[in-house]
Design goal:
The complex is a heterodimer.
Chain A (H helix, E strand, L loop, with lengths): L4 H20 L12 H4 L8 H12 L2 H14 L6 H26 L4 H9 L2 H32 L7 H22 L2 H29 L1 H15 L14 H15 L3 H8 L4 H10 L1 H19 L18 H9 L2 H39 L5 H25 L2 H15 L3 H4 L10 H21 L14 E3 L11 E3 H22 L29 H4 L4
Antiparallel strand pairs in A: 1-2
Chain B lengths: L27 H5 L4 H4 L11 H23 L3
Classes of the chains: A mainly alpha, B mainly alpha.
Chain lengths: 548, 77
């Protein structure tokens, strides 16, 4: 620990700096009345282009991404580079979808995707399904942000042996995070994101200029990686894709892109924008982070070239590849710069963790508390409940990491990406058409979820010697009608089945003349922009539409 | 702030708003091209030491930015 003292001091100083900012954020762009979910949970829906860029960038590209993607490249090679096409195609895909979502939410005061579904289909049940899916998918994602911090702490040697000593730094960090999120709401991560993203950009630009120089150039780095993968018995790794994992690469990129903007925390970031132009321009500006992510991914190859050996994992005999990037920084950079890099990752975990907990809290408040527990809740009630819910969510996330094997969170996050995709027909398609019947959407969701869980259960992982939940690449030959070693992304298959079932059941329900519910939106709502007359804030949509 | 160009002078509030534009079709390009692995799944030619697989996919980022910027500018009202 003593040889890491400079790193620890710099890490702690920067961490305390942003914590202070988090508390001050309550007064930043302060509203007259903070006691409203629009203020606490969406920053007053007033963020301009720059703030949105930092906020959504800090939200989508999480600390876990920055640690896990290079770890994947380190272990498997080219397959891990799916993060680049994934974060390229996502913006043109959602360019038109998000402005519709923003407009209809602006007009009706929606805070969550489930709010939209509730009003669009007049179905509290479907909204509940969407809300629970969102909460379940988000929880392990928050826990994983802790895995990002832990990788850094482990490298700095700030770990003890007992359960408490091992996790004390994380518990303290999350307690501080919980306190300022409680106080400042979405304004806290928005303000901290400036520091976090600036640090990450500086660290990565320095790393990709300095490290290749120390490691003998990019050509040498790729050759070293190639040599390592040639020597392994695994036929699926390498610096290029193989014949069998290309379908997986493409479907994983496509499925992940479709899933990311369905996550409640992404939608929270988008709805906090001031107008449609802010969203559209960010679709062109956010790929700057994709470039950064691509460079970060390649740190995995640099770690191979530098001969990094990952630290041991939680179980005896296992290794924690999430530590390769922190180790690379620790061994190749002067300790003061490694300290800055570690702070960038650590702070990088706080921004998404804060937004995710706010998003999950909003889902609980709007779609469970207000819908089922207290129908006459005032905006002030919602505000109070959401603040407390955000604390509960964070305590839950810490519990995941402290009391359960971190692998459990990684599995759940893998499942989370697949299950959030099952909300695509109701949320994304729902923005364009109401043709699918609400009952059919629920049936399709159930079919997609069931199939997804069955498929994930079937996937073994040779590296971790586990029989189930070993990854998201499903070998097609497990379907009896295929005889091929090719693999495909589970979420992609599941959402396709979800959609087909939803279409078929829609025909059935229409034939049976099952009531279709009332659409609380008009076609004009989907084009509303800043300055548009809004539905009165105090009259939320839940009351304006009669349920059937 | 351009006035609506339709011949019947409809009040701005009444004009049926839409996001439709032929320019939107451009968005298909950066969605489809990055998914065509045969284009870029090669080592050669290398650029500054980067195998084609990597530098071509970095170029897709520019493709995405260019396309969304063009669509934004051409559909601005």
């Amino acid at each position: 620990m003593s040889d890491h003292i400079t790193e620890i001091i710099i890490f702690t100083a920067l961490f305390l700096l942003v914590s202070g900012m988090g508390f001050v954020a309550a007064r930043w762009r302060a509203p007259k009345d903070m006691a409203h979910l629009d203020e606490w949970g969406l920053g007053g829906r007033s963020f301009g282009g720059w703030i949105t860029w930092f906020l959504v960038g800090g939200d989508l590209y999480t600390a876990y991404t920055f640690v896990a993607v290079p770890a994947l490249i380190f272990g498997a090679g080219a397959a891990g580079f799916f993060a680049v096409p994934y974060t390229v195609i996502i913006y043109p895909m959602f360019f038109l979808i998000l402005i519709r979502l923003w407009s209809v939410s602006h007009r009706h005061g929606f805070v969550t995707p489930a709010d939209f579904v509730r009003t669009r289909y007049g179905s509290p049940t479907l909204a509940l399904v969407i809300a629970i899916t969102g909460i379940v998918a988000t929880m392990p994602y928050i826990a994983l942000q802790l895995v990002g911090i832990e990788a850094v702490l482990k490298t700095m040697g700030v770990t003890g042996d007992s359960l408490l000593a091992r996790h004390a730094p994380i518990i303290i960090a999350f307690a501080i995070l919980a306190a300022y999120t409680y106080q400042s709401g979405l304004r806290a991560p928005a303000l901290i994101a400036f520091v976090k993203d600036s640090l990450i950009y500086i660290v990565i630009l320095v790393a990709v200029l300095y490290l290749p120089y120390k490691l003998g150039g990019w050509g040498g780095i790729f050759d070293a990686a190639d040599k390592k993968f040639q020597a392994t018995p695994n036929p699926g790794d390498g610096i290029l894709l193989t014949a069998n994992n290309q379908l997986q690469y493409v479907t994983l990129a496509l499925g992940s892109a479709l899933a990311l903007f369905l996550y409640p925390h992404s939608i929270t970031g988008v709805l906090a924008g001031r107008n449609r132009t802010v969203i559209k321009r960010n679709m062109s500006a956010l790929p700057a982070y994709s470039f950064l992510l691509g460079l970060i991914a390649l740190l995995g190859y640099m770690a191979i070239s530098a001969g990094i050996k990952p630290l041991p994992g939680a179980k005896a005999g296992s290794t924690d590849t999430n530590t390769v990037v922190p180790l690379l920084f620790d061994q190749k950079f002067p300790s003061w710069f490694a300290g800055i890099a570690f702070a960038a990752i650590g702070i990088g975990a706080l921004v998404p963790a804060a937004i995710m907990s706010i998003a999950a809290a909003n889902l609980f408040t709007r779609n469970i508390y207000k819908e089922y527990l207290k129908r006459d809740a005032t905006p002030a009630d919602e505000f109070k409940v959401s603040k407390i819910a955000s604390l509960v969510v964070k305590i839950g996330a810490v519990g995941f990491i402290v009391f359960l094997d971190p692998q459990f969170s990684i599995d759940l996050q893998l499942i989370g990406g697949v299950i959030i995709l099952q909300t695509a027909p109701a949320v994304a398609l729902g923005l364009y058409t109401r043709w699918l019947h609400r009952g059919a959407l629920i049936t399709g969701w159930a079919a997609g979820m069931g199939l997804a869980l069955w498929m994930l259960w079937q996937i073994p992982n040779a590296a971790t010697k586990r029989a189930h939940f070993g990854g998201s690449a499903f070998p097609l030959n497990k379907f009896w009608f295929f005889d091929t070693p090719k693999t495909i992304y589970v979420g992609f298959v599941a959402v396709a089945v979800n959609l087909v079932v939803a279409i078929l059941v829609t025909f059935l329900l229409r034939a049976m003349k099952t009531p279709d519910g009332v659409d609380g939106t008009t076609s004009d709502d989907y084009f509303a922009d800043e300055g548009d007359p809004r539905v009165d804030k105090s009259v939320t949509t839940v009351e304006t539409v009669s349920s059937t | 702030m351009a006035e609506p160009e339709s011949p019947e002078a409809v009040p701005a509030e009444r004009v049926k708003r839409t996001d439709r534009s032929p320019w939107n079709w451009l968005l298909v390009i950066p969605i489809v091209v990055p998914l065509l692995t045969p284009i870029y799944n090669h080592d050669a030619p290398r650029f500054a030491g980067f195998p084609a697989f990597y530098w071509i996919q970095f170029l897709f980022i520019l493709l995405g930015v260019t396309t969304t910027s063009i669509v934004y500018r051409m559909t601005r009202r």
